[in-house]
């Protein structure tokens, strides 16, 4: 295979992006310029290059929009529940699970992980934190333990798999040319191993420091609690969780996968949002509904705005998506580079796995685990095909690295929501997470090598 100027420029931009992430510099401008130059070289026209820049971002936005939409709807539902008090009623019974430091650690983690699966970690933090923290403290769990549990279960386990909303596997799978259902099937063993190792080690280290007196718990004073709720709030507190449990069983029973499963989750969430608004606010429901939807879309766009231009560039590396941007006959640039690399350096499962998980971790250094998913997905396809390994497993491994790093467990600027709610220093939290998370990712890498 003969590599063209476009291939070398693409490679140069990829390396610049990786360097930018390592040194915590913004990479959007680099990817935009890279897309423009490649469009110019491919078409031979600067005017067409300008059109290519827009087309690339539009294509990326189209691919990502269903993820953006469902996140917006779920956040809108959360905001509506907060307004009527249903979120408090939903969380209150769970606080009774906290009888000891050990029970509090795993209970607060499990609750945060469960809510994160439906709402994503940051809004789940704001939902779980204020109600769970006092109960966990009274059970004798130090604040740093609460922060670690919420962080590892929510930003780590739930987000790295993202089995309900399916934003992460869709992004990675789209770039890797792998269906979402295959991505989920490939990722759950890696999620399980990474989670078990990281959480177990983190808890062991915490208990050891508690016994040595390095960290101690502070028992808070009993706070006044809200005791008046509307019938709608009481109904929503059980209707919302039961509805989503029914959704999960329905997707299993009807074998709904990928976009079909996402559509069911989004549709049920939207319907619940409307029902709660109508039931609580009657004739003023349209105002409250509009406000909640605006908040939901603002949150979703804020998350994905920086992802779209980065994704637009990396989609140029995919043989499935590149023709939609550059036109018929356009090559998958990164895929071609991976094939060329395989003729120079023999690619096997071990080095390929190490490369992917390392790049995944590096890609998360900007604090956004999602910004690197398209890159690791494209790389998984580019390196996995010539190496003759399972692309879905390889892409899932890269997803583990990117989400556990940038999703909010290893970089201080990625754990600000946890720090804001608990008062724990971001540096202290990420330092305590570092060894357990890296051990978990190492275990996942070893497992992936065997699975490939």
UniProtKB/TrEMBL annotation:
The chain crosses the membrane at residues 6-23, 30-54, 60-81, 102-122, 186-206, 236-254, 260-278, 299-317, 337-361, 373-397, 434-451. The keyword Transmembrane helix applies. Keywords: Membrane, Transmembrane, Transmembrane helix. This is Transporter. It comes from Tumebacillus avium.
């Amino acid at each position: 295979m003969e590599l063209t100027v476009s291939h070398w420029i693409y490679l140069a931009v990829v390396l610049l992006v990786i360097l930018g992430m390592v040194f915590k510099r913004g990479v959007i401008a680099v990817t935009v310029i890279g897309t423009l130059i490649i469009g110019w070289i491919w078409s031979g026209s600067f005017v067409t290059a300008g059109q290519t820049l827009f087309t690339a971002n539009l294509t990326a936005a189209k691919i990502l929009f269903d993820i953006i939409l469902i996140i917006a709807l779920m956040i809108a539902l959360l905001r509506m529940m907060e307004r009527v008090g249903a979120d408090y009623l939903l969380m209150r019974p769970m606080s009774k699970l906290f009888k000891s430091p050990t029970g509090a650690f795993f209970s607060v983690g499990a609750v945060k992980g469960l809510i994160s699966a439906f709402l994503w970690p940051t809004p789940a933090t704001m939902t779980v934190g204020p109600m769970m923290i006092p109960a966990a403290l009274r059970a004798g769990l130090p604040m740093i333990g609460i922060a670690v549990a919420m962080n590892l279960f929510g930003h780590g386990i739930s987000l790295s798999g993202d089995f309900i909303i399916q934003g992460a596997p869709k992004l990675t799978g789209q770039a890797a040319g792998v269906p979402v259902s295959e991505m989920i099937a490939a990722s759950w063993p890696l999620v399980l191993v990474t989670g078990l190792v990281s959480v177990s080690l983190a808890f062991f280290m915490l208990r050891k420091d508690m016994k040595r007196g390095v960290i101690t718990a502070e028992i808070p004073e009993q706070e006044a609690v809200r005791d008046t709720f509307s019938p709608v709030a009481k109904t929503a507190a059980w209707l919302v969780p039961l509805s989503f449990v029914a959704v999960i069983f329905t997707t299993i029973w009807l074998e709904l996968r990928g976009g079909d499963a996402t559509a069911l989750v989004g549709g049920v969430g939207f319907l619940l949002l409307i029902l709660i608004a109508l039931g609580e606010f009657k004739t003023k429901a349209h105002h409250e509904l509009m406000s909640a939807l605006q908040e939901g879309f603002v949150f979703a766009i804020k998350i994905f705005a920086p992802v779209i231009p980065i994704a637009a560039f990396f989609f140029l590396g995919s043989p499935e998506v590149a023709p939609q941007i550059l036109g018929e006959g356009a090559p998958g640039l990164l895929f071609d580079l991976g094939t060329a690399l395989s003729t120079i350096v023999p690619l096997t499962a071990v080095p390929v796995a190490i490369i992917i998980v390392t790049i995944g971790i590096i890609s998360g250094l900007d604090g956004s685990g999602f910004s690197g998913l398209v890159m690791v997905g494209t790389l998984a396809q580019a390196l996995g095909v010539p190496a003759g390994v399972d692309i879905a497993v390889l892409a899932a491994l890269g997803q583990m690295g990117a989400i556990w790093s940038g999703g909010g467990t290893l970089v201080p600027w990625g754990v600000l929501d946890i720090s804001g709610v608990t008062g724990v220093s971001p540096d202290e939290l990420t330092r305590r997470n570092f060894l357990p998370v890296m051990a978990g990712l190492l275990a996942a890498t070893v497992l992936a090598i065997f699975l490939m």
